[in-house]
Amino acid sequence: MAVLKRTPLYEEHQAAGAKLIDFGGWEMPVQYAGVVEEHQTVRTKAGLFDVSHMGEIDVSGNEALEFVQMLITNDVSVLEDGKILYSPMCYPDGGIVDDLLVYRYDSNHFFIVVNASNTDKDYSWMIVQAKNFDVDIRNVSDRYAQLALQGPLAEKILQGISNIDLAKINYYSFQHGEIDGLQCLISRTGYTGEDGFEIYVSPEKARQLWQKIIEIGAPEGIEPIGLGARDTLRFEARLPLYGHELGAEISPLEVGLSAFVKLDKAAFIGRDVLRTQKEQGILRQLVGLEMIGRGIARAQYPLQKNGEDIGFVTSGSFSPTLNKNIALGLIRADLAAQGDILDVLIRGKAVQAKIIPTLFYKRGN
Amino acid sequence: MNPADLKYNKNHEYAKVEGNIVTFGITDHAQKSLGDVVFIELPDEGATVTVGESYGTVESVKAVSDIYATISGKVIESNTLVLDTPDLLNSDPYGEGWLIKVAADDLSPLENMMTASEYELFLAEEEH
Fold first, then answer.
1. How far is the alpha carbon of B54 from chain A, nearest alpha carbon, in Å?
2. How far apart are CA B75 and CA B97, in angstroms?
Protein backbone atom coordinates (compact mmCIF):
# COMPACT_ATOMS: atom_id res chain seq x y z
CA MET A 1 0.00 0.00 0.00
CA ALA A 2 1.23 3.47 -0.85
CA VAL A 3 2.33 5.60 2.07
CA LEU A 4 -0.32 8.17 2.89
CA LYS A 5 0.63 11.82 2.65
CA ARG A 6 0.24 13.91 5.78
CA THR A 7 -0.39 17.61 6.17
CA PRO A 8 1.76 19.76 8.51
CA LEU A 9 -1.12 19.53 10.99
CA TYR A 10 -1.11 15.76 11.35
CA GLU A 11 0.23 15.88 14.94
CA GLU A 12 -2.45 18.40 15.88
CA HIS A 13 -5.15 16.03 14.67
CA GLN A 14 -3.64 13.13 16.56
CA ALA A 15 -3.36 15.19 19.73
CA ALA A 16 -7.00 16.26 19.38
CA GLY A 17 -8.09 12.63 19.18
CA ALA A 18 -9.27 12.80 15.57
CA LYS A 19 -10.26 9.69 13.69
CA LEU A 20 -7.97 9.63 10.66
CA ILE A 21 -8.81 8.09 7.29
CA ASP A 22 -7.31 7.68 3.84
CA PHE A 23 -8.80 10.49 1.78
CA GLY A 24 -7.50 10.46 -1.79
CA GLY A 25 -4.05 9.37 -0.62
CA TRP A 26 -3.98 11.74 2.34
CA GLU A 27 -4.25 10.74 5.99
CA MET A 28 -6.91 13.21 7.05
CA PRO A 29 -9.19 13.76 10.06
CA VAL A 30 -12.73 12.58 9.27
CA GLN A 31 -14.07 13.57 12.69
CA TYR A 32 -13.05 14.81 16.12
CA ALA A 33 -16.04 15.13 18.51
CA GLY A 34 -18.53 13.64 16.05
CA VAL A 35 -19.91 14.64 12.65
CA VAL A 36 -23.26 15.98 13.87
CA GLU A 37 -21.80 18.05 16.71
CA GLU A 38 -19.08 19.46 14.43
CA HIS A 39 -21.67 20.30 11.79
CA GLN A 40 -23.76 22.25 14.31
CA THR A 41 -20.67 24.03 15.62
CA VAL A 42 -19.95 25.43 12.16
CA ARG A 43 -23.60 26.41 11.60
CA THR A 44 -23.88 28.20 14.96
CA LYS A 45 -20.34 29.21 16.07
CA ALA A 46 -17.13 28.55 14.19
CA GLY A 47 -15.05 25.57 13.15
CA LEU A 48 -11.47 25.17 11.98
CA PHE A 49 -10.64 22.79 9.13
CA ASP A 50 -7.31 21.54 7.89
CA VAL A 51 -7.61 21.61 4.11
CA SER A 52 -3.89 21.61 3.41
CA HIS A 53 -4.39 18.67 1.06
CA MET A 54 -5.98 21.01 -1.50
CA GLY A 55 -3.84 21.69 -4.56
CA GLU A 56 -2.50 25.10 -5.54
CA ILE A 57 -1.32 25.93 -9.04
CA ASP A 58 0.39 29.20 -9.91
CA VAL A 59 -0.12 30.62 -13.41
CA SER A 60 1.98 33.59 -14.50
CA GLY A 61 3.20 35.21 -17.69
CA ASN A 62 2.24 37.70 -20.38
CA GLU A 63 -0.66 35.56 -21.57
CA ALA A 64 -1.84 34.35 -18.18
CA LEU A 65 -5.24 36.02 -18.53
CA GLU A 66 -5.81 34.68 -22.05
CA PHE A 67 -4.73 31.21 -20.95
CA VAL A 68 -7.04 31.04 -17.92
CA GLN A 69 -9.88 32.44 -20.04
CA MET A 70 -9.41 29.56 -22.51
CA LEU A 71 -9.03 27.00 -19.70
CA ILE A 72 -12.20 27.59 -17.69
CA THR A 73 -15.89 28.06 -18.42
CA ASN A 74 -16.46 31.17 -16.30
CA ASP A 75 -15.42 34.64 -17.50
CA VAL A 76 -12.11 35.62 -15.91
CA SER A 77 -11.90 38.85 -17.96
CA VAL A 78 -14.30 40.57 -15.54
CA LEU A 79 -12.26 39.54 -12.50
CA GLU A 80 -10.46 42.37 -10.71
CA ASP A 81 -7.16 42.17 -8.84
CA GLY A 82 -7.75 40.72 -5.38
CA LYS A 83 -10.95 38.94 -6.43
CA ILE A 84 -11.78 35.26 -6.76
CA LEU A 85 -13.83 33.37 -9.33
CA TYR A 86 -15.39 29.92 -9.04
CA SER A 87 -15.39 27.91 -12.25
CA PRO A 88 -15.64 24.46 -13.74
CA MET A 89 -12.78 23.42 -16.03
CA CYS A 90 -14.05 21.24 -18.86
CA TYR A 91 -12.86 18.78 -21.46
CA PRO A 92 -13.66 19.50 -25.13
CA ASP A 93 -16.72 17.20 -24.80
CA GLY A 94 -18.12 19.33 -21.96
CA GLY A 95 -17.28 16.85 -19.18
CA ILE A 96 -15.69 18.30 -16.07
CA VAL A 97 -11.95 18.00 -15.39
CA ASP A 98 -12.35 19.70 -12.00
CA ASP A 99 -13.86 22.73 -10.33
CA LEU A 100 -11.54 25.54 -9.27
CA LEU A 101 -11.13 28.79 -7.44
CA VAL A 102 -9.18 31.33 -9.51
CA TYR A 103 -7.47 34.10 -7.52
CA ARG A 104 -6.32 37.11 -9.53
CA TYR A 105 -3.18 38.85 -8.28
CA ASP A 106 -3.02 40.81 -11.54
CA SER A 107 -3.62 40.15 -15.24
CA ASN A 108 -0.28 38.34 -15.49
CA HIS A 109 -0.58 36.26 -12.37
CA PHE A 110 -3.28 33.90 -11.10
CA PHE A 111 -3.41 31.43 -8.22
CA ILE A 112 -5.66 28.43 -8.84
CA VAL A 113 -6.93 26.16 -6.08
CA VAL A 114 -7.98 22.65 -7.09
CA ASN A 115 -9.28 19.48 -5.47
CA ALA A 116 -6.59 17.49 -3.65
CA SER A 117 -7.12 14.23 -5.51
CA ASN A 118 -7.13 16.04 -8.87
CA THR A 119 -4.01 18.15 -8.39
CA ASP A 120 -1.68 16.07 -10.56
CA LYS A 121 -4.32 15.51 -13.24
CA ASP A 122 -5.22 19.22 -13.35
CA TYR A 123 -1.60 20.31 -13.45
CA SER A 124 -0.85 17.94 -16.36
CA TRP A 125 -4.00 19.08 -18.16
CA MET A 126 -3.01 22.73 -17.80
CA ILE A 127 0.53 22.08 -19.02
CA VAL A 128 -0.79 20.41 -22.18
CA GLN A 129 -3.31 23.19 -22.83
CA ALA A 130 -0.67 25.89 -22.32
CA LYS A 131 1.68 24.92 -25.11
CA ASN A 132 0.70 27.85 -27.34
CA PHE A 133 0.61 30.41 -24.54
CA ASP A 134 3.32 32.54 -22.97
CA VAL A 135 2.68 31.28 -19.46
CA ASP A 136 4.54 29.58 -16.66
CA ILE A 137 2.53 26.99 -14.73
CA ARG A 138 3.75 25.63 -11.43
CA ASN A 139 2.29 23.14 -9.01
CA VAL A 140 3.00 24.99 -5.76
CA SER A 141 0.86 22.76 -3.51
CA ASP A 142 3.82 21.91 -1.27
CA ARG A 143 4.38 25.57 -0.48
CA TYR A 144 1.01 26.10 1.18
CA ALA A 145 -0.88 24.79 4.11
CA GLN A 146 -4.54 25.79 4.08
CA LEU A 147 -6.81 26.33 7.07
CA ALA A 148 -10.52 27.11 6.72
CA LEU A 149 -12.23 29.00 9.52
CA GLN A 150 -15.98 28.81 8.92
CA GLY A 151 -19.07 29.87 10.79
CA PRO A 152 -20.91 32.99 11.94
CA LEU A 153 -18.20 33.82 14.51
CA ALA A 154 -15.27 33.36 12.10
CA GLU A 155 -14.62 37.05 11.47
CA LYS A 156 -14.88 37.98 15.13
CA ILE A 157 -12.40 35.29 16.13
CA LEU A 158 -9.90 35.95 13.37
CA GLN A 159 -10.00 39.74 13.70
CA GLY A 160 -8.50 39.50 17.18
CA ILE A 161 -5.21 38.24 15.73
CA SER A 162 -5.18 39.92 12.30
CA ASN A 163 -3.39 43.11 11.28
CA ILE A 164 -5.87 43.93 8.52
CA ASP A 165 -9.55 44.88 8.69
CA LEU A 166 -11.29 41.64 7.77
CA ALA A 167 -14.65 43.39 7.33
CA LYS A 168 -13.12 44.94 4.19
CA ILE A 169 -12.52 41.56 2.61
CA ASN A 170 -15.75 40.95 0.72
CA TYR A 171 -17.10 37.55 -0.26
CA TYR A 172 -14.86 36.02 -2.94
CA SER A 173 -12.06 38.53 -2.31
CA PHE A 174 -8.63 38.10 -0.74
CA GLN A 175 -5.82 40.06 0.83
CA HIS A 176 -2.34 39.41 2.09
CA GLY A 177 -2.01 40.10 5.78
CA GLU A 178 -0.62 38.91 9.06
CA ILE A 179 -2.40 36.58 11.45
CA ASP A 180 -0.61 36.21 14.77
CA GLY A 181 2.35 37.86 13.02
CA LEU A 182 2.43 35.20 10.27
CA GLN A 183 2.25 36.15 6.60
CA CYS A 184 -0.98 34.73 5.15
CA LEU A 185 -3.21 34.95 2.13
CA ILE A 186 -6.67 35.49 3.59
CA SER A 187 -9.64 34.76 1.38
CA ARG A 188 -13.33 35.18 2.18
CA THR A 189 -14.40 31.84 0.73
CA GLY A 190 -15.47 28.47 1.99
CA TYR A 191 -17.21 25.20 1.40
CA THR A 192 -19.80 25.11 4.15
CA GLY A 193 -22.56 27.57 3.30
CA GLU A 194 -21.42 29.80 6.17
CA ASP A 195 -19.41 33.00 6.26
CA GLY A 196 -15.73 32.41 6.80
CA PHE A 197 -12.18 32.47 5.57
CA GLU A 198 -9.70 30.24 3.87
CA ILE A 199 -6.17 31.02 5.00
CA TYR A 200 -3.05 30.04 3.09
CA VAL A 201 0.19 29.94 5.05
CA SER A 202 3.60 28.38 4.67
CA PRO A 203 3.64 24.76 5.90
CA GLU A 204 6.28 25.54 8.56
CA LYS A 205 3.93 28.02 10.21
CA ALA A 206 0.74 25.98 9.96
CA ARG A 207 0.87 24.48 13.45
CA GLN A 208 1.43 27.85 15.11
CA LEU A 209 -1.50 29.30 13.20
CA TRP A 210 -3.76 26.33 13.96
CA GLN A 211 -2.94 26.43 17.69
CA LYS A 212 -3.42 30.17 17.88
CA ILE A 213 -6.83 30.15 16.19
CA ILE A 214 -8.03 27.27 18.39
CA GLU A 215 -6.75 29.12 21.46
CA ILE A 216 -8.27 32.49 20.64
CA GLY A 217 -11.52 30.91 19.47
CA ALA A 218 -11.98 28.75 22.54
CA PRO A 219 -14.16 31.25 24.44
CA GLU A 220 -16.42 31.43 21.36
CA GLY A 221 -16.78 27.66 21.23
CA ILE A 222 -14.53 26.98 18.24
CA GLU A 223 -13.85 23.33 17.47
CA PRO A 224 -11.68 21.50 14.94
CA ILE A 225 -13.86 20.04 12.17
CA GLY A 226 -13.23 16.90 10.14
CA LEU A 227 -13.96 15.97 6.55
CA GLY A 228 -17.17 14.21 7.60
CA ALA A 229 -18.85 17.44 8.63
CA ARG A 230 -17.21 19.28 5.74
CA ASP A 231 -19.15 16.96 3.45
CA THR A 232 -22.53 17.33 5.20
CA LEU A 233 -22.07 21.12 5.39
CA ARG A 234 -21.25 21.52 1.70
CA PHE A 235 -24.00 19.08 0.73
CA GLU A 236 -26.74 21.01 2.59
CA ALA A 237 -25.57 24.20 0.83
CA ARG A 238 -25.65 22.41 -2.58
CA LEU A 239 -21.94 22.98 -3.10
CA PRO A 240 -20.90 20.34 -5.63
CA LEU A 241 -18.16 17.80 -4.97
CA TYR A 242 -15.92 16.29 -7.62
CA GLY A 243 -16.62 12.55 -7.91
CA HIS A 244 -20.23 13.14 -6.86
CA GLU A 245 -21.98 16.02 -8.65
CA LEU A 246 -18.95 16.65 -10.89
CA GLY A 247 -16.96 14.36 -13.16
CA ALA A 248 -15.75 13.63 -16.67
CA GLU A 249 -19.17 12.18 -17.59
CA ILE A 250 -21.15 15.13 -16.25
CA SER A 251 -21.70 18.54 -17.86
CA PRO A 252 -21.77 21.64 -15.64
CA LEU A 253 -25.10 22.56 -17.25
CA GLU A 254 -26.65 19.34 -15.94
CA VAL A 255 -25.75 20.04 -12.32
CA GLY A 256 -27.02 23.59 -12.03
CA LEU A 257 -23.74 25.38 -12.75
CA SER A 258 -24.88 27.31 -15.86
CA ALA A 259 -24.21 30.59 -14.03
CA PHE A 260 -20.54 29.63 -14.15
CA VAL A 261 -20.54 28.76 -17.87
CA LYS A 262 -20.28 31.94 -19.95
CA LEU A 263 -21.03 30.81 -23.47
CA ASP A 264 -20.70 34.34 -24.89
CA LYS A 265 -17.17 35.00 -23.68
CA ALA A 266 -14.02 34.32 -25.76
CA ALA A 267 -13.46 30.72 -26.88
CA PHE A 268 -12.81 28.17 -24.15
CA ILE A 269 -12.39 24.42 -23.95
CA GLY A 270 -15.77 22.70 -24.18
CA ARG A 271 -17.66 25.74 -25.45
CA ASP A 272 -19.07 24.25 -28.63
CA VAL A 273 -20.50 21.18 -26.94
CA LEU A 274 -21.84 23.18 -23.99
CA ARG A 275 -23.49 25.66 -26.37
CA THR A 276 -25.18 22.84 -28.24
CA GLN A 277 -26.38 21.38 -24.93
CA LYS A 278 -27.79 24.75 -23.95
CA GLU A 279 -29.57 25.19 -27.30
CA GLN A 280 -30.96 21.67 -27.50
CA GLY A 281 -31.68 21.34 -23.80
CA ILE A 282 -29.90 19.13 -21.31
CA LEU A 283 -30.99 15.53 -20.94
CA ARG A 284 -30.23 15.20 -17.23
CA GLN A 285 -30.78 17.53 -14.32
CA LEU A 286 -29.67 17.66 -10.71
CA VAL A 287 -32.60 17.49 -8.31
CA GLY A 288 -33.02 17.61 -4.57
CA LEU A 289 -34.69 14.63 -2.92
CA GLU A 290 -36.36 14.24 0.43
CA MET A 291 -36.97 10.70 1.60
CA ILE A 292 -40.62 9.83 2.16
CA GLY A 293 -40.01 6.18 3.01
CA ARG A 294 -37.51 5.06 5.62
CA GLY A 295 -33.92 5.09 4.45
CA ILE A 296 -30.96 7.18 3.41
CA ALA A 297 -30.22 7.60 -0.28
CA ARG A 298 -26.46 7.20 -0.70
CA ALA A 299 -24.21 8.13 -3.63
CA GLN A 300 -24.63 5.82 -6.64
CA TYR A 301 -27.95 4.32 -5.53
CA PRO A 302 -30.20 4.00 -8.62
CA LEU A 303 -33.23 6.26 -9.00
CA GLN A 304 -36.32 4.82 -10.66
CA LYS A 305 -39.77 5.81 -11.84
CA ASN A 306 -42.32 3.02 -12.38
CA GLY A 307 -39.49 0.50 -12.21
CA GLU A 308 -37.46 2.20 -14.92
CA ASP A 309 -33.97 3.60 -14.25
CA ILE A 310 -34.00 7.38 -14.59
CA GLY A 311 -30.75 8.34 -12.87
CA PHE A 312 -28.68 7.97 -9.73
CA VAL A 313 -27.95 9.60 -6.39
CA THR A 314 -24.86 11.84 -6.43
CA SER A 315 -24.76 12.66 -2.68
CA GLY A 316 -27.09 11.67 0.12
CA SER A 317 -27.07 11.90 3.86
CA PHE A 318 -28.90 12.60 7.03
CA SER A 319 -29.04 16.40 7.19
CA PRO A 320 -28.10 17.58 10.69
CA THR A 321 -29.58 21.04 10.09
CA LEU A 322 -32.92 19.87 8.67
CA ASN A 323 -33.07 16.66 10.70
CA LYS A 324 -34.20 14.85 7.53
CA ASN A 325 -32.74 12.35 5.09
CA ILE A 326 -32.06 14.18 1.86
CA ALA A 327 -30.10 13.66 -1.34
CA LEU A 328 -28.98 15.15 -4.62
CA GLY A 329 -29.67 13.06 -7.71
CA LEU A 330 -28.97 13.34 -11.41
CA ILE A 331 -32.09 12.27 -13.30
CA ARG A 332 -33.77 12.52 -16.69
CA ALA A 333 -34.58 16.20 -17.16
CA ASP A 334 -38.10 15.47 -18.44
CA LEU A 335 -38.91 13.79 -15.10
CA ALA A 336 -37.42 16.47 -12.86
CA ALA A 337 -40.64 18.24 -11.83
CA GLN A 338 -40.77 19.64 -8.29
CA GLY A 339 -43.00 17.63 -6.00
CA ASP A 340 -42.94 14.48 -8.11
CA ILE A 341 -42.35 11.17 -6.38
CA LEU A 342 -39.67 8.72 -7.46
CA ASP A 343 -38.03 5.61 -6.03
CA VAL A 344 -34.56 5.28 -4.56
CA LEU A 345 -33.28 1.73 -4.83
CA ILE A 346 -31.79 1.08 -1.39
CA ARG A 347 -30.09 -2.30 -1.31
CA GLY A 348 -32.53 -3.54 -3.93
CA LYS A 349 -35.64 -2.15 -2.24
CA ALA A 350 -37.59 0.75 -3.76
CA VAL A 351 -38.09 3.54 -1.23
CA GLN A 352 -40.10 6.65 -2.13
CA ALA A 353 -38.59 10.13 -2.27
CA LYS A 354 -39.98 13.50 -3.29
CA ILE A 355 -38.28 15.99 -5.61
CA ILE A 356 -37.54 19.24 -3.75
CA PRO A 357 -35.36 22.30 -4.47
CA THR A 358 -31.63 21.50 -4.36
CA LEU A 359 -30.65 24.34 -2.04
CA PHE A 360 -31.41 22.62 1.25
CA TYR A 361 -29.82 25.25 3.46
CA LYS A 362 -29.15 28.96 3.07
CA ARG A 363 -27.61 30.93 5.90
CA GLY A 364 -29.77 33.55 7.55
CA ASN A 365 -32.82 31.27 7.45
CA MET B 1 -17.95 -1.17 30.55
CA ASN B 2 -19.00 -4.25 28.55
CA PRO B 3 -21.59 -5.97 30.75
CA ALA B 4 -20.47 -9.33 32.12
CA ASP B 5 -23.83 -11.01 31.49
CA LEU B 6 -23.65 -10.62 27.69
CA LYS B 7 -21.99 -12.63 24.92
CA TYR B 8 -19.94 -10.90 22.22
CA ASN B 9 -18.70 -11.63 18.69
CA LYS B 10 -15.88 -10.32 16.53
CA ASN B 11 -18.29 -8.16 14.55
CA HIS B 12 -18.84 -6.12 17.75
CA GLU B 13 -22.36 -7.36 18.36
CA TYR B 14 -23.72 -8.64 21.63
CA ALA B 15 -26.35 -11.18 22.63
CA LYS B 16 -28.24 -11.14 25.92
CA VAL B 17 -29.78 -14.49 26.81
CA GLU B 18 -32.91 -14.85 28.96
CA GLY B 19 -34.29 -18.37 28.70
CA ASN B 20 -34.67 -18.96 24.96
CA ILE B 21 -35.09 -15.23 24.24
CA VAL B 22 -31.97 -13.54 22.88
CA THR B 23 -31.64 -9.74 22.62
CA PHE B 24 -29.34 -8.44 19.86
CA GLY B 25 -27.41 -5.19 19.90
CA ILE B 26 -24.11 -3.59 18.98
CA THR B 27 -21.31 -2.97 21.45
CA ASP B 28 -20.02 0.29 22.85
CA HIS B 29 -16.90 -0.14 20.72
CA ALA B 30 -19.09 -0.53 17.61
CA GLN B 31 -21.07 2.63 18.29
CA LYS B 32 -17.87 4.58 18.90
CA SER B 33 -16.27 3.49 15.66
CA LEU B 34 -19.49 4.11 13.70
CA GLY B 35 -19.94 7.62 15.04
CA ASP B 36 -23.35 9.31 15.14
CA VAL B 37 -25.98 6.72 14.24
CA VAL B 38 -28.69 8.38 12.14
CA PHE B 39 -30.68 5.50 10.66
CA ILE B 40 -31.54 1.93 11.60
CA GLU B 41 -33.39 -0.73 9.64
CA LEU B 42 -34.72 -3.76 11.53
CA PRO B 43 -36.90 -6.76 10.65
CA ASP B 44 -40.57 -6.71 11.65
CA GLU B 45 -42.00 -8.86 14.38
CA GLY B 46 -42.59 -12.39 13.15
CA ALA B 47 -39.74 -12.29 10.65
CA THR B 48 -37.10 -14.97 10.92
CA VAL B 49 -33.39 -14.35 11.23
CA THR B 50 -30.58 -16.77 10.45
CA VAL B 51 -27.32 -17.06 12.34
CA GLY B 52 -24.48 -15.33 10.49
CA GLU B 53 -26.81 -13.53 8.09
CA SER B 54 -27.64 -9.83 7.95
CA TYR B 55 -30.90 -8.91 9.67
CA GLY B 56 -30.69 -5.14 9.26
CA THR B 57 -28.48 -2.10 8.86
CA VAL B 58 -27.10 0.61 11.07
CA GLU B 59 -26.14 3.83 9.31
CA SER B 60 -23.93 6.60 10.61
CA VAL B 61 -23.68 9.93 8.83
CA LYS B 62 -20.98 8.51 6.57
CA ALA B 63 -21.36 4.75 6.48
CA VAL B 64 -23.81 1.88 6.11
CA SER B 65 -23.09 -1.23 8.22
CA ASP B 66 -24.87 -4.57 8.11
CA ILE B 67 -25.75 -6.22 11.39
CA TYR B 68 -25.65 -10.01 11.66
CA ALA B 69 -27.74 -12.46 13.65
CA THR B 70 -25.90 -14.35 16.37
CA ILE B 71 -28.53 -17.11 16.50
CA SER B 72 -31.45 -18.23 14.31
CA GLY B 73 -35.07 -17.77 15.27
CA LYS B 74 -38.21 -15.69 15.07
CA VAL B 75 -38.26 -11.97 15.88
CA ILE B 76 -40.65 -11.41 18.80
CA GLU B 77 -39.92 -7.71 19.20
CA SER B 78 -38.15 -4.94 17.27
CA ASN B 79 -37.08 -1.89 19.23
CA THR B 80 -39.29 0.75 17.64
CA LEU B 81 -37.80 3.38 19.95
CA VAL B 82 -34.40 3.19 18.23
CA LEU B 83 -36.02 3.46 14.80
CA ASP B 84 -37.22 6.94 15.78
CA THR B 85 -34.27 7.78 18.01
CA PRO B 86 -31.24 6.11 16.43
CA ASP B 87 -28.79 8.02 18.62
CA LEU B 88 -29.83 5.72 21.49
CA LEU B 89 -27.30 3.33 19.97
CA ASN B 90 -24.61 5.89 20.78
CA SER B 91 -25.86 6.92 24.19
CA ASP B 92 -27.04 3.58 25.59
CA PRO B 93 -25.98 0.63 23.39
CA TYR B 94 -26.48 -1.97 26.16
CA GLY B 95 -29.73 -0.50 27.48
CA GLU B 96 -32.35 1.38 25.47
CA GLY B 97 -30.25 0.96 22.32
CA TRP B 98 -30.99 -2.78 21.97
CA LEU B 99 -32.18 -3.84 18.50
CA ILE B 100 -34.34 -6.99 18.36
CA LYS B 101 -35.47 -9.86 20.59
CA VAL B 102 -35.44 -13.29 19.01
CA ALA B 103 -37.03 -16.56 20.14
CA ALA B 104 -34.08 -18.85 19.50
CA ASP B 105 -34.43 -22.14 17.65
CA ASP B 106 -31.16 -23.35 19.11
CA LEU B 107 -28.88 -21.61 21.59
CA SER B 108 -25.73 -23.55 20.70
CA PRO B 109 -24.22 -20.86 18.35
CA LEU B 110 -23.84 -18.72 21.48
CA GLU B 111 -21.17 -21.13 22.72
CA ASN B 112 -18.82 -19.73 20.07
CA MET B 113 -19.26 -16.18 21.33
CA MET B 114 -16.90 -14.40 23.71
CA THR B 115 -17.40 -13.47 27.34
CA ALA B 116 -16.95 -9.81 28.29
CA SER B 117 -13.37 -10.37 29.42
CA GLU B 118 -12.54 -12.33 26.24
CA TYR B 119 -14.07 -9.55 24.17
CA GLU B 120 -11.99 -6.93 25.94
CA LEU B 121 -8.85 -8.94 25.18
CA PHE B 122 -9.99 -9.16 21.57
CA LEU B 123 -10.44 -5.37 21.46
CA ALA B 124 -7.00 -4.82 22.92
CA GLU B 125 -5.47 -7.11 20.28
CA GLU B 126 -7.45 -5.44 17.49
CA GLU B 127 -5.95 -2.08 18.50
CA HIS B 128 -2.51 -3.39 17.51
1. 12
2. 17
Please tell me the pTM assigned to this model. Answer: 0.94
Cross-chain residue pair B62–A320, CB shorter than 8 Å: no
Pseudo-torsion of CA B122, B125, B126, B128, nearest 10°?
170
Domain residues for the domain of B61 are 7-106+114-127
Q: Chain B residues with CB inside 8 Å of A31's CB?
A: 35
Give the minimum alpha-carbon distance from A120 to chain B in angstroms, rounded to a whole number.
Answer: 27
Contacts with A23 from chain B: Cβ below 8 Å: none
The pLDDT tens digits of the residues spanning A172-207 come to: 999 999 999 999 999 999 999 999 999 999 999 999
The CA distance from B84 to the nearest CA of chain A, in Å, is 10
Q: Confirm whether B118 is domain-assigned.
A: yes
Domain membership of residue B38 (yes or no) is yes
Domains, in order of start, for chain A: 10-52+144-236 (3.30.1360.120), 55-129 (3.30.70.1400), 283-356 (2.40.30.110)
Q: Which of A280, A233, A234 is nearest to A253 (CA)?
A: A280
A318 vs B39: CB contact, 8 Å cut-off?
Answer: yes
Q: Report the domain count for chain B.
A: 1
Residues from B contacting A (CB-CB < 8 Å) are 35-36, 38-39, 41, 57, 59-62, 64, 83
Which candidate in A318, A322, A324, A351 is best for mutational testing of the B interface (most B CBs within 10 A)?
A: A318
d(CA A203, CA A100) in angstroms, rounded, equals 21
Give me the CATH number covering residue B35.
2.40.50.100
CA atoms of B56 and B59, how far apart (whole Å):
10
Helix (H, G, I), strand (E, B) or coil at A157: helix
Measured CA distances, A279 to A62, A250, A256, A267, A325 (Å): 35, 17, 16, 17, 35
Query: Does residue A101 surpass a pLDDT of 70?
Result: yes
Contact yes or no for A317/A325 (Cβ under 8 A): yes
pLDDT digit string, tens, across residues A117-169: 999 999 999 999 999 999 999 999 999 999 999 999 999 999 999 999 999 99
Nearest-by-CA chain A residue for B59: A296
- Assess if residue B2 is contained within a domain: no
